[in-house]
Amino acid sequence: LKPCPDLADRAGIWRFSASKTGQKFSDGEQVATGIRDISSLDWSASDGRLYGIMHGRDNTSRMFPNAVSAEDENNIADEMHVITKGTNFGWPYTYYDGVRKQRLVAPEYGGDGKMAAPAGTYSTPILTFQGPRAAPVDLLFYPGKSFPAEYRGGAFVVLHGTRNKSGYDIVFVPFSRHGKAGDPQVFANGFAGFDTTAATPGRAKYRPIGEAAGPDGALYVTDSQQGRVWRIAYGQ
Question: CA 128 to CA 126: how far, in whole Å?
């Protein structure tokens, strides 16, 4: 459907007062729209901006094989955006190809895997994850001081993993003082415990699902499979 009815009161971010009780949904101020699925949100203390990572669409090549190949499917990105008033992530009308670095029209709305979305309508991601997508589920701009200086002001991203292939890691994204993101670096891995010599990797033993920084400056990581919590500290 166009317009998509979900965009009226779903698929977005709304801002509410933190000091007022009895609020209704209509009391909120819509900040962003066009979001398929998002759980990774955090403020950067360095530049004062809100950041979020949206999960890209799934099973597109299976549903629209004449428009999107399996390789094209792997290029559909999870998108990291700076979120300001009026940010439009583009769902469900578009998706972002992280390899071509191009926003494309979704097949449901006439896209053929090549048709570019209208320029100037949708936000452009500052960083993407693809190939196959790793399912970023949490985002934390490091607020502590116990890690080396290169980590301060940067972002840790929890990758929950997908298809028993990629993700299952904590990656670090360096940020400049001007809010420019660098390339993601694997910070902690081995959670899945896959047998790389086996024909099929089997089920992941652990899957990172959340993170927080403690008052000691350590990074705490939680697992969705068995409820484990890890503490990652520097020099200890």
Answer: 7
Tokens of 164: 């028993």
Please say if the pLDDT value at position 163 is more than 80: no
**Are 171 and 78 within 8 A, CB to CB?**
no
Query: Of how many residues is the chain composed?
Result: 236
Whole-angstrom distance, CA of residue 135 vs CA of residue 147: 26
Contacts 24+ apart (CB under 8 A), 221-226: 221/158, 221/170, 221/188, 223/191, 224/160
236's CB contacts (< 8 A; 6+ apart) are: none
Q: Closest by alpha carbon to 103, among 69, 143, 137, 75?
A: 75
Report d(CA 99, CA 97) in Å as an integer.
6
- Tens digit of each residue's pLDDT (9 = 90 or more) over 203-221: 889 999 999 999 999 999 9
CA angle, 21 then 139 then 189, to 5°: 145
Q: What is the pLDDT of residues 13-56, one digit of tens each?
A: 999 999 999 999 999 999 999 999 999 999 999 999 999 999 99
Burial group, residue 99, by CB count within 10 angstroms (0-12, 13-18, 19+): middle
Residue 188 CB neighbour total at 10 angstroms: 17
Q: What is the distance in angstroms between the CA of the first residue and the CA of the last residue of the chain?
A: 55
